[in-house]
From TrEMBL:
It comes from Streptomyces aurantiogriseus. Residues 27-200 form the Class II aldolase/adducin N-terminal domain. SMART domains: Aldolase_II. It comes from the Bacteria. This is Class II aldolase.
Amino acid sequence: MNVTLFHLYASVAPMTDSSSALGQERAAVADACRRLGAEGLLIGTAGNVSLRAGERVAITATGAVLAELTADQVTVVDLDGKVVAGTLQPTSELELHLGVYRRYGAGAVVHTHAPMATAVSCVLDELPCVHYQLLALGGTVRVAPYATFGTPELAESVLDALDGRGAALMANHGAVTHAATLGKAVEHALLLEWACGVYQRAASMGRPRVLDEQQQLAVIEAALARDYGTTHPVPPAQEGNR
């Protein structure tokens, strides 16, 4: 199937590049990290988050405690990885983030060691589409083969696993999501963690049912017909009958 909810809603609109925006983007990355920490998807210094602003990327510094991150712990690099703002070295997964921007034109990238996603990455070769909301990530979520963190091998395998997807799992490691905006990339990370939890609970009771291609297509058609995911006012005629 060539069409998924991910393709329908993944229009990319990275922030424009300006010096005045860099401070805002660094603050936004710090805010996202604190939210992910509060949600239990980030622990200690494990994980990294970035946001693209034109030809610049605001990205978490290596060794920073992410649940307590402040804007001055976010470094700004260009698309070649050269530091252009900030006093701290960027995350060891910098090449992974830059690779996502280069290959997929994303606006933001989130990498977590979320417990449910990490557990699934230790067992499965892919997370099957057990719930229609996974279509917002592209359907099944592939698991990139294990490689040492921060290596070109890991970055390349994760980039391949992300082809046509908004998320990938990293074997015995964690998860990565990307989107047009940082808010949406965070939502993808939360959705993936939820879906991994659903799968684990279902698998503990038996073999989880998986939505087939026809069922997935029906969901996409229904979402398009109903403009799923947005609010709609009550028609005037119905308002008068209240």
